[in-house]
Amino acid sequence: MFKLALRTLRLRKGGFLATFVAVFFGALVVSACGGLMETGIRSETPVQRLATAPIVVGGQQTLELPKEDPASLDADDKHKFENATLPERVRLDAGLADRLRAVPGVTKVVGEVSFPARIGAASALGHAWDSAVLTPYALEGTAPKPGEVVVDAGLGLAVGDTLPVAAHGSVSPFRISGIAQAPQAMRDSAVFFAPSDAERLSGHPGRFDTIGVFGGDVAAVIAAVGDAGVVATGVDRGAFEFPETGKGGENLIVLAAVSGGLSAMVMVFVVAGTLTLSTQQRQRELALLRAIGTTPRQLRRMVLGEALVVGLLAVGAAVVLGPVLGEWLFGRLAEHQVVPDVLRYEQGWVPAVVAAGASLLAVVGASFVAGRRASRIRPTEALAEAAVERRWLTPIRLVTAILCFAGGTALGIVTVAVMTGPVAASTAGPAVMLWAFGLAAISPGVTKLVASLLTWPVHALTGVNGRVALRNTRVGAVRAAGAVTPIMLAVGIATANIYLQTTQEAVSNQAYTEDLRADAVVGSAGGLDPAVLGRVRALPEVAGASEYVTSTVFVEKPFDSGQNDDGRPALGVSELTGNAVEVPSTLGHHVGDTLSLRLGDGTPVDVRVTAVVDQRPGFEKLVLPAGLLAPHTTLGLAPQLLVNAAPGVDAATLTSRLRAATAGLPVFVGDRGTLIAAHAKGNEVGAWVNYLLVGMIIAYTVISVVNTLVTATARRRREFGVQRLSGFTRGQVLRMAGVEGGLIAAIAVLLGTLVAAGAIVPFCLVVTGTPLPSGPVTIYLAVLAIAVVLSLSAILVPAWAATRGRAVDATSVGE
Predict the structure, then answer these.
(1) Which of 584, 598, 605 is closest to 555 using CA atoms?
(2) Cβ contact 252:333 at 8 Å
(3) Phi, psi at residue 295, to the nearest 5°?
(4) Which regions span the lipid bilayer (predicted)?
(5) pLDDT band at residue 422, thresholds of 50, 70 and 90?
(6) How many alpha carbons fall within 13 Å on the CB side of residue 27?
(7) Which residues make beta-bridge pairs with 604?
(8) Cis omega before residue 136 (within 30°)?
(9) Confidence category of residue 591, pLDDT binned at 50, 70, 90
């Protein structure tokens, strides 16, 4: 039967090409997402600044959080923990370097610090000159003394120049004593200070970012470090140089898992629909094979063999091109700062195997379902059903639909009853797929039902052509459902995900705007000198000013059941002092309670609740003193100062006076609109990721739609010929096909809208209090227009080709 399968491939190239395309693009997307996931898991980062140090010691950037309240567990119970990534750089005590120097075999120990600096208009990272050996840099000139710097050769400066250097919130003139040449391309330009200047400007005196160790045994170094840090060798050293790759890798894993899983599920339905349609179009051929003595088992083997041959060819091409698409997607993510640009894209054999396995499993499952009906039916019944499909509902379809509808309903209830704020999207998103898959399982019946409901408007608008199109759609519901299903998936996924995103953005921007009381902002990429606060407050045009610091904290005691490994957002302001904290009322704490926290760099601190405030659900924050929070951030200083205008002072006057008061300082001044725009831009990054990945999946479904409709329409040449011989003109046949295309688009849009509503309505009820999403209606209209144009084009073009020539010639061809 496999020989017969290979022969049929040569004779039915169109149908098998459609299957090839469906499997190829599905495997391609899954393989690319697998590469992104592997990259996130590996999180390999090329070593640059620390290249020559064989052993590097860095801070422990993870924190163990209990999953259950330790107080509620018995002494014999096993404690369960999850690892949280600390968002701020964890630094090392300089005394650890002295301990490492005492390790036998260690020849050199070098501490390294990095901090943002600007030389004129150029951005760079500041370091102490004695850490240049870690790269190493070649020096032209002399090492810097206090008040001098050595600059990176890429900055284009010359020895002897004196330029203002901005670092740690202040600007001072420094003389260039030398030029440093790196042995390889570096992401960041470097400026080297004398050790005493670097310690002062880093903002963390007595602390190192990393420590490079030369010589000695790794095990001995690990023993000497103990719990004070983490030891890395080889490619793992890059994570200490660029700690942001840890969180970036986690984000990439989540993105790839969601996108790859969604793509795999869509692929199952698309491949199943394509193979089922192809088998249905060959019903007479398969019936004749049964009539001449072919056993059901042989028939199933033939269908499986055909599908496997096509599937293997498609998978082979997809796994070769998968890394190309994956690397392109990774480049777009890095370009838009979704992942760190120093992260190295890595894709081995595992994603290819997973993509191949998932795709071939979909092919085998789809071919089994497609061949099972053809093999079980009696030959005489098969010949009767070859022209008209009657039976489509099977126990598997029914059970699948019931389970999906039940799951979608359950997720909707959970979204409304349990979730708060934007986190509700975590249940609303999967609900889209459950509703879509439930409808896809019974799509022939739903297609026939909706077509019946559209009878009156179709008759009123299209006349006799519409009547024939309606009959074709209802009688050929299984065939029509093969086109309706992928369009419905595309409309549902696109509408739901885009409107979920726009609603999240609108709610986030609204919450930020409502909470924002400032009229202007003073900010600095390198942090603000604390003295700027007093200078601004002294202006008569200023009613009030506060430092503004954002970070993440982790509540250790009492146990916080609502906290996950992302911790709790924290906000630092100048109005609070000491160890005070304001907490949202949803946490259940009271004034006077003591909370044990871990700040963003892992530092433990006890704070006392001084206020309990109502905050917008989903946007709760712990408010701490800026003086407590800022020193434990990577920057070490507040990056922004929020300013309120005095009564009668307009925004233009206020910003003008602030610029005059901060002249000569490395700061920028903006109005309220600047703050709102910056916040909105931060949301745009997440939106771009969502649109990219959803767009990739939708593109796949679009290809499937074109495949299905072109294949199905091209196979109707004989049917069109019979219609023309019975009195239809070619124009009437094309108009009838156009009405069919419009019907398919209308049914798919209606079902896709229903699918999207199953996720959007519960989500919007939670975050906005209304069932309607936020976002322009043009998004929905654009999706609708794409569906209509796609359906009409994919039907009319092959129908035009199929009706060329004489009608009598068309009736003589096989089905």
Answers:
(1) 598
(2) yes
(3) -80, 160
(4) 252-277, 307-329, 349-370, 398-420, 432-456, 477-500, 688-712, 733-757, 777-797
(5) low
(6) 31
(7) 598
(8) yes
(9) very high
Helical ranges in 166-243 per DSSP H: 195-202, 218-225, 238-241
Entry pTM: 0.78
Residues 6+ apart with CB under 8 A from 648: none
Encoded tokens for 229: 């840090």
- Going by their DSSP bridges, the two strands 170-181 and 162-167 should be labelled as antiparallel
What number is the average pLDDT over the span 772-799?
A: 85
Residue 358: pLDDT over 70: yes
Q: Please state the φ and ψ torsions of residue 177, each to the nearest 5 degrees.
A: -100, -15
For residue 6, is pLDDT > 70?
no
> What's the chain's Rg over C-alpha atoms?
33
Whether the CB-CB separation of 122 and 167 falls below 8 Å is answered with: no
C-alpha dist (Å) from residue 383 to 227, 282, 284, 387, 391: 77, 11, 6, 8, 14
User: 690-695: long-range contacts at Cβ-Cβ below 8 A with a sequence spacing of 24 or more?
Assistant: 690/497, 690/498, 690/501, 691/498, 691/501, 692/329, 692/332, 692/333, 693/255, 693/258, 693/259, 694/493, 694/494, 694/497, 694/498
- Where helices occur in 281-394 by DSSP H, the ranges are 283-291, 296-335, 349-376, 379-385
Of 361, 397, 436, 386, residue with least CA distance to 759: 436
pLDDT class for 784, splitting at 50, 70, 90?
confident
Q: How confident is the model at residue 810 (pLDDT cuts 50, 70, 90)?
A: low
- What one-letter code names the amino acid at 481? A
Quote the strand ranges of 604-724, DSSP E.
604-613, 622-625, 640-645, 668-671
Q: Write down the pLDDT at residue 284.
A: 67
First to last CA, the chain: 22
The helix or strand, by DSSP H or E, that contains position 25, with its residue range, turns out to be: helix 13-42
For 695-735, write each residue's pLDDT tens digit.
Answer: 776 777 677 777 667 766 766 777 778 878 888 888 888 88
- What residue spans define the domains of the chain? 1-45+242-387, 55-233, 407-506+680-815, 525-666
Residue 664, phi-psi category: left (phi > 0), alpha (psi -120 to 50), beta (remainder): left
Closest by CA to 209, choosing from 56, 21, 37, 394, is 56
Of residues 711, 724, 700, 703, the one with CA closest to residue 797: 711
* Amino acid occupying residue 56: V
Helix/strand/coil for 662: coil
Say whether 44 sits in a helix, a strand or coil.
coil
Q: How far apart are CA 137 and CA 439, in angstroms?
A: 64
Instruction: Tell me which amino acid residue 461 is.
Output: L
333's CB contacts (< 8 A; 6+ apart) are 36, 252, 255, 339, 689, 692
- Please report the sign of the dihedral spanned by the C-alpha atoms of residue 15, residue 18, residue 20, residue 22: negative
Q: Which residues of 495-526 are buried (b: 16+ CB within 10 A; e: fewer)?
A: bbbbbbbbbbbbbbbebbeeeeebbbbbbbeb
CA torsion 180→184→186→190, rounded to 10°? -10
Instruction: Count other Cβ atoms within 10 Å, centred on residue 8.
Output: 18
Q: Which residues pair with 595 in a beta bridge?
A: 607
Rounded Cα–Cα distance for residues 771 and 426 (Å): 18
Q: Which residue do the tokens 């250790």 mark?
A: 556
Q: What length does the chain have?
A: 815
Q: Extract the runs of DSSP E, i.e. beta strands, from 558-709.
A: 568-573, 580-584, 594-598, 604-613, 622-625, 640-645, 668-671
The identity of residue 488, as a single letter, is M
Please report the sign of the dihedral spanned by the C-alpha atoms of residue 749, residue 751, residue 756, residue 762: positive
